[in-house]
Design a protein that fits this description.
The protein is α/β, with parallel strands linked by helices. The protein has a single domain, classed as NAD(P)-binding Rossmann-like Domain (Rossmann fold). Helices cover 49% and strands 13% of the residues. It contains 9 helices and 7 strands. It has a 7-stranded parallel β-sheet, with helices on both faces. Helix 2 links the parallel strand 2 (27-32) and strand 3. Helix 4 packs parallel to helix 5 (146-165). The chain is globular, with a radius of gyration of 18 Å. It binds NADP nicotinamide-adenine-dinucleotide phosphate. NADP nicotinamide-adenine-dinucleotide phosphate binds next to helix 1 and helix 6. This is Short-chain dehydrogenase. Keywords: Oxidoreductase.
Length: 257
C-alpha cells in the first residue's frame, strides 16, 4: 500500500485529493492547522475506504510547522510515495493594501514550505527510485497578479525545473494550475465572487481526477479543463499590460473593508 501526504487536506482541493486518493486505496497523512477537523476527516476516510489516515497538525506559516512535516516526509520507514503541496490562501486587497507581514506569510506558505517539503520528500523518493509530487499553483501564475500570482509563478518554475533535474530517477513532479474552484478559499480571504461568471468555476473532484491523470502521463504542468487550456492559449499572446487590467477586474472584487 502506498502513502500520500496532503497539505491543506481539510477543505476544497486538498479534501478532494484526500477523497480520491483514499478511494484509490492510498494511506494518507493529513496536514492542516485545525486538529479537530483533521481527526474527523481521518475517521471518515478510514471508515469509508478502510485506509489508514494519520493526522499531522502543522501551521506551514511557522518554522515548527514546516519542520514537523519535513520530518514526516524524510522518514525512511513508512515513507511517503506521493506529496501534494496544496495548502494556500489569498490575501484580501491589492498591493500596499495588504500588510507586508501578510505578504511574507504568503511567501512562507506558498514558496518556502513548498521548497522545503518538496526537497524532504524527493530526497527520500530518489533513494527508493519512485515517488511523485503535485505542487498546487494556479492559472494566476501566468498573469500579473501581485504576490499571489508571483508566488504561484515561482511554484510553476520551481516544479518544472526540479522535474527536469530529477528526470530518470523515478520521481515525478507536476505543477497543478487550477482556474476558479468552488472551495473555502474566496470566503476565507473575504473576496466577493459574484463577478466571476458561472462558466469559469471548476469542480474540485473533477479537477483532481484530471490532475492525477496528467501526473500518470508524466506531465510536469497540468492545466485541467479545456476552458482554461483555451484561456491560457489566449493569455500567451495577450500583452501583459492588457492582461493586468482584465485580471484585476475578474475575481478581485473584495468584500466590505
Ligand atoms: N479555489 C480556487 O479558486 C483556487 C484556484 C487556483 C489555485 N488554488 C490553490 O489551491 C490550493 C488550495 O486552495 P483551496 O481553494 O482548496 O482553499 P481552501 O478551501 O481555503 O482550503 C485551504 C486548506 O489549506 C489549509 N491551510 C491554510 N493555511 C494553512 C497553513 N498556514 N498551514 C497549513 N494548512 C493551511 C486549510 O486548513 P486549516 O485552515 O485548518 O489550516 C485548508 O485545509 C491553494 O494553494 C490555492 O492557492 C485555489
Amino acid at each position: 500500500m502506498t502513502t500520500a501526504l496532503i497539505t491543506g487536506s481539510t477543505a476544497g482541493i486538498g479534501a478532494a485529493f484526500a477523497r480520491r486518493l483514499a478511494a484509490d486505496g492510498h494511506n494518507l497523512v493529513l496536514v492542516a492547522r485545525d486538529t479537530k477537523r483533521l481527526r474527523e476527516q481521518a475517521t471518515e476516510l478510514h471508515d469509508r475506504h478502510g485506509i489508514e489516515a494519520e493526522v499531522l497538525t502543522a501551521d506551514l506559516a511557522t518554522e515548527d510547522g514546516i519542520a514537523a512535516v519535513e520530518e514526516r516526509l524524510g522518514r525512511r520507514r513508512d515513507g511517503v510515495d506521493l506529496l501534494v503541496n496544496n495548502a494556500g490562501f489569498g490575501n484580501k486587497g491589492r498591493y500596499l493594501e495588504v500588510s507586508l507581514a501578510d505578504e511574507l506569510t504568503m511567501l512562507k506558505v506558498h514558496c518556502e514550505a513548498v521548497l522545503r517539503l518538496t526537497s524532504a520528500a524527493t530526497e527520500a523518493m530518489r533513494e527508493r527510485g519512485r515517488g511523485g509530487v503535485v505542487n498546487v499553483a494556479s492559472v494566476a501564475a501566468f498573469v500579473p497578479r501581485g504576490t499571489y500570482g508571483a508566488s504561484k509563478a515561482w511554484v510553476v518554475q520551481f516544479t518544472q525545473g526540479a522535474a527536469r533535474d530529477l528526470a530518470g530517477t523515478g520521481v515525478r513532479l507536476m505543477a497543478l494550475c487550477p482556474g476558479f474552484v468552488r472551495t473555502e478559499f474566496h470566503e476565507r480571504a473575504g473576496m466577493g465572487t459574484d463577478n466571476i461568471p458561472n462558466w469559469m468555476w471548476l469542480d474540485a473532484d473533477k479537477l483532481v481526477a484530471a490532475a492525477l491523470a496528467d501526473l500518470a502521463r508524466g506531465k510536469s504542468l497540468s492545466v485541467p479543463d479545456p476552458r482554461y487550456k483555451a484561456l491560457m492559449g489566449v493569455v500567451k499572446v495577450t500583452p501583459r499590460a492588457l492582461l493586468g487590467g482584465v485580471t484585476s477586474r475578474t475575481g478581485r472584487k473584495y468584500g466590505p473593508q
